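Before a computer can learn anything about folding, someone has to put a protein's shape into writing. The outcome of that step, for a single protein, is printed below:
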Amino acid sequence: LLTAKLKKIGFTHNLKKAKSYLTEAIFNSLREYHSNTSVHAELHKMLHLAEVLLEKKLNVLAKKILLKAEKLALEYELYDFLMVISSYKAAALHTTRNIKDMEEYLKHGTHKEKKYLEYYNNIIEFRNLGFQLRLRDTIYGLSKKRKGTNENNSVFKSPLLSSADKALSFTALQYYYYILLEKGKWDHATCQRQKEWITYLESDETKLVERGYVYLIALMNLMFIQASIGRMNEAEKSHEKIKDFYFSLPPKKRTKPLLEILVNATSEYMGRCIQNGNPEKSLKAWEQIKGYISFNMMNPSYFLVICNTLSDIHFMLGNYHEALKWVNKIINFKEK
């Protein structure tokens, strides 16, 4: 319809250019809006600026930017960025051929670069273990039979998993706890290990907002474990922590992935409350978050689970008319 209207006024030959311009404008707007919302975004911005400065031969300014970027990347243990920063610094040295800077680099810089490489290789080793496990899950699914034999998976025989000390950085530690959680045996020892991971995350409050996604996933997994081994009082406290942390975040940080963790965790908690014969507590959990959720933005699988859970709650409470409303939402659901 739009093409037909534009054709009448002879604009169709410019439509492709207009679409391209509009798309680029939207992307630029999104990039600008999110440019300071994460350490990764900040580092990307710094590296781009350093690249421009190096091209313009403004090496002193570029060096200052790279030192600032290196300090930030080190603070958050982002060794992939540190490798890129090292390559930029080396390129600058190659261009300027400053004797003093070269001597300093050969004395200290190469040692740091080798250290960064050691830590980055450690991340790659843990990441590849995670990929092997994910590949197995993708091929065989998450059936009870597969979970029961998961401990025999060769991934878990890796020397890297013998101790948390084998993980040299935060990112490697993420993989370490993720892999051991996927071992398939949830018990009190698994619960304790997950608490150790959360304690580690909480030990540096200054980074907790930046690592919000990792923290919420860790809390949600702890809640799942606690509920599975019959510790519902502890699971309830974990759910409260998830909810309180999410709502304490600045609006810009309340991203869709984080909202989905909140919805997923709440849905699981509600289901456990129903299993324990406590629909009132389940309904209360929903009432606390429903005002912040848009069904149109929700993952379809979460939407259907929530609808099913709410129909169960209202049926158990004798609110049959309300229960049928949620059943009808499931019946009339059409995936976009």
Q: What stands out?
A: DSSP finds 15 helices and no strands in the chain. Residues 143-149 have pLDDT under 50 and may be disordered. Residues 99-140 form the longest helix (42 residues). The CA atoms of residues 220 and 265 lie 6 Å apart.
